[in-house]
Design goal:
The protein is of the alpha/beta class. The chain is globular and about 60 Å long. The strands form three sheets. Strands 2-1-3-4-5-6 form a six-stranded parallel β-sheet, with helices on both faces. The chain has two domains: about 130 residues, Cobalamin-binding domain (Rossmann fold), CATH 3.40.50; about 270 residues, Alpha-Beta Horseshoe (pyruvate-formate lyase- activating enzyme). Helix 9 links the parallel strand 11 and strand 12. The protein is built from 16 helices and 14 strands.
C-alpha cells in the first residue's frame, strides 16, 4: 500500500505558525518504523509542505492535537471525497473518538504502536474497523528506530527526537499526559536507546529526548546518563525543578551532555500549585534550583501557565521580574487551556466556565474559559504582554548574554530567543486584527 502520514498545519499567522523553530512529531516516524517494508510510507508535515489531495494513496493517517483537529478533519474529508481510506489518531481523537469517527474510516484510541499492524492488515483487505485500541500499554522494549529519513531535510530545529520513557508519575490537573497514560511511567531499555543513538545519520549536534519527565525513575536515569556520557552528545529534555536538589543527578546529566531542561514551574503562587496538584513544586526551591542547574552548565527553559484561579493581573509583572532576576534562558508562557480529557476541563465545564468548544481556539494563546480573578480581556492582554516583554531585546540581553560568562547552553537558547522575538510581535498583530474582524462581524450581526 501507499501510505501518507499527515501532520496538519496551524492556522496561517497564528502564534505557533509564525515561530521559526518547528519540531517533527515522533509518533509519525515511529509508525513509519513499524510499517512492514512492502508498504511505501510518506510523512507530510503541512506546516512545511502542501498536501497533494489528488496523489494516488491507499491509506491516509492523520494525527491530531486539539487545536489542529478542525484542520485535520478538513484534510480527512478532502481525502474521503476522493475515495481514500482515512485513519485518525492522536491525543484529541483518543479523548473524542466519536467526533473523530465522523471524519474517518477508523480511529486509533490511545497508543497505536501495537495496533498499527492490525490497522494496515485491515486496510489492505478493505475492512477497517471503526475503532482500534490496545489492550495493554506499549512495551517500550519493542519500539522501532524512528524513520528520520522520511522527515523533510530542512525546516526543523531538531531532527533527532528520541524517547526513553513514557508517562509521568505525577498527576497535574491540567496535564494531557496523565489524562492519556494515567500515572504510569515506563522505561525503554537503555541498550535500545543506545542502538538508536548509534543509528543517527545526521549530526549528533543536538538530540531532543522527548520524555515528559526524563528523571522520573532515578536508578534508570543513572544508567541512562552513564551510557550517554560515553558519546559526545549535546541534548535537551524535560524534567521537574526538584531534580536540582539531587547534586549527583545534575552532575551526571551535565557530564552526559545535557545543555537544557524544559521545566514545568507552572506558577509563582503556592495556592495555584496546590489546586493543580503539582505538590512536588515549591516556589521557595525555584531560585536555588535554577542557580544549581546554571552552575552545571544546564540551561532552563521554563513553563509558566497563566490564568489559574489564584492569578490576578499582577502575576504578569511578577513573572517578568522573576525571569530577569534568575536569568531564565527561555520560556513557554501559555494561557491555561482546558483540553478535553483533562481534569481541569471537567472542572471548568462543571463550573460553567468554558466559553467555547471551537477547538481551533484551544491553541494556548487564546482565552477559552472565564478566569476567576481577572477578566477574559485582562488575561488575553496579559498573555501578549508577558510574551512580548520576555522576548524583547532588552530582556534577552539581560537574561542570556553575560559579559563575563559564556554559557554552553547559549548555543541553543540564543537562536531560540532571537527567533521568538519577531514571531511574537507578528502573531500578536495577527491576533488583534482577527479580533477586530470578529468584533466587527458581531456588531454587524
Amino acid at each position: 500500500m501507499r501510505i501518507s502520514l499527515i501532520i496538519p498545519r496551524w492556522p496561517k499567522d497564528s502564534f505557533w505558525d509564525v515561530i521559526a523553530f518547528k519540531f517533527p512529531l515522533l509518533s509519525t516516524s515511529l509508525l513509519a518504523g513499524l510499517t512492514p517494508p512492502q508498504h511505501q510510507v510518506r510523512i507530510i508535515d503541512e506546516s512545511l509542505s502542501e498536501i497533494d489531495f489528488d496523489r494516488d494513496v491507499d491509506l491516509v493517517g492523520i494525527t491530531l492535537i486539539t487545536p489542529l483537529a478542525p484542520r485535520g478533519y478538513e484534510i480527512a474529508d478532502e481525502f474521503r471525497k476522493r475515495g481514500r481510506k482515512v485513519v485518525i489518531g492522536g491525543v484529541h481523537a483518543s479523548w473524542l473518538p466519536e467526533e473523530a469517527k465522523a471524519h474517518a474510516d477508523g480511529v486509533a484510541i490511545g497508543e497505536a504502536d501495537e495496533t498499527w499492524a492490525e490497522i494496515l492488515k485491515d486496510a489492505e483487505m478493505g475492512k477497517l474497523k471503526p475503532f482500534y485500541q490496545q489492550k495493554d500499554r506499549t512495551d517500550l522494549s519493542q519500539l522501532p528506530i524512528a524513520r528520520r529519513d522520511l522527515l523533510p531535510p530542512k525546516g526543523y530545529l531538531f531532527h533527532n527526537l528520541i524517547q526513553t520513557t513514557r508517562g509521568c508519575p505525577y498527576d497535574c490537573e491540567f496535564c494531557s499526559v496523565t489524562a492519556l497514560h494515567g500515572r504510569t511511567y515506563r522505561m525503554r531499555p537503555v541498550s535500545e536507546v543506545e542502538k538508536e543513538i548509534q543509528s543517527l545519520e545526521r549530526s549528533k549536534a543536538y538530540i531532543f529526548f522527548v520524555d515528559d519527565n526524563m528523571v522520573g525513575n532515578l536508578s534508570y536515569a543513572r544508567e541512562l546518563f552513564g551510557m550517554l556520557s560515553r558519546y559526545r552528545l549535546r541534548w535537551v529534555s524535560q524534567g521537574p525543578i526538584h531534580v536540582a536538589e539531587n547534586e549527583e543527578i545534575v552532575s551526571l546529566m551535565a557530564k552526559a551532555g545535557c545543555h537544557g531542561l524544559f521545566i514545568g514551574f507552572e506558577s509563582l503562587r503556592e495556592e495555584n500549585l496546590d489546586l493543580m496538584g503539582k505538590k512536588i513544586n515549591r516556589v521557595k526551591m525555584y531560585e536555588r534550583g535554577i542557580q544549581r542547574l546554571h552552575d552545571a552548565g544546564i540551561g532552563v527553559y521554563a513553563s509558566f501557565v497563566f490564568g489559574y484561579d489564584y492569578d490576578d493581573v499582577s502575576v504578569f509583572d511578577e513573572f517578568l521580574e522573576f525571569a530577569d532576576r534568575n536569568r531564565i534562558d527561555g520560556a513557554f508562557l501559555p494561557i491555561l487551556t482546558p483540553f478535553p480529557g483533562t481534569r481541569i476541563y471537567h472542572r471548568l465545564k462543571q463550573e460553567g466556565r468554558i466559553l467555547t468548544e471551537d477547538w481551533s481556539k484551544y491553541d494556548m494563546a487564546t482565552v477559552v474559559f472565564q478566569p476567576k480573578r481577572m477578566s477574559v480581556k485582562e488575561l488575553q492582554e496579559g498573555f501578549w504582554k508577558v510574551n512580548r516583554s520576555f522576548y524583547s531585546p532588552a530582556s534577552m540581553a539581560k537574561r542570556i548574554f553575560h559579559p563575563f560568562h559564556l554559557k554552553r547552553s547559549l548555543i541553543i537558547f540564543g537562536p531560540m530567543n532571537l527567533g521568538l522575538w519577531p514571531a511574537v510581535k507578528k502573531a500578536e498583530c495577527y491576533f488583534k486584527k482577527e479580533e477586530l474582524h470578529s468584533e466587527g462581524r458581531r456588531s454587524y450581526a
